[in-house]
Amino acid sequence: MWDPYLALTRMYVVLGRPQKVIWSSLKILEMLGFVIHGTAFHTSGSTMFVVEKWGLVVDYLVECWMDLWTAYAVLGDLERAETMRKFAIVSYRIVVGEDQTFEETYGSKGRVCMAQRRLWSSL
Fold this sequence. Notes:
Elements: H1 3-15, H2 18-31, E1 35-37, E2 50-53, H3 61-74, H4 78-96, H5 102-115
Antiparallel strand pairs: 1-2
């Protein structure tokens, strides 16, 4: 049931709607069984983002975290964006079996997106 939300997230990315990208990405995580707290957007005085329980790990999980990384960054919540980047690395390590190639496969493109204030899949 999570894959329709992935399609919806990709559509929100194309439309350039970071708040909707966050909402639909979090729905993907919820559908995969993740229990997460502290997701609300904050520009100052943030609440800690916590993954209380990890859910099912699928290939597109890294993309989901990348969407969250760049969406929070576009909205100016750099602390939460950095947290999403770290979860992307952990997910990459789980899916691929190592994290040494994360930067060349995902990280460098994510940094370009952040520098251009663009969402993950919109380059």
